[in-house]
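Following the same procedure, sequence and fold were stored together, as reproduced here:

>
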Amino acid sequence: MLRFVVLTLLVAMVIGQAKNSGCNYFCTKPEGPNKGAHYCCSPPFIPLKPEEKHPGKCPPPLKDCTRIIPQVCPHDGHCPFNQKCCFDTCLDLHTCKPAHF
């Protein structure tokens, strides 16, 4: 539990820094209480890349949150080829997830 709290704080801190230093990418929340809201989904260390669409679909949302540390992403081009940039309902941001076919 402590690890999850620390991870959440780190992600929030990175997103907060992105707001202060400019943002390269904005994403839209597709679900949840802030559905439709735009947020900075590119921490400062994420380089600009051409937008890509990897094959497959995003997996269904998890019923329980995991303790896996995700890779934050603004689009598929920031994920390995076998993964998609999908909205994570637990973290309330986009992360790389294994593609479903």
Summary: DSSP finds one helix and four strands in the chain. The radius of gyration is 13 Å. The first strand starts at residue 26 and ends at 28. Residues 12 and 79 are 20 Å apart (CA to CA).
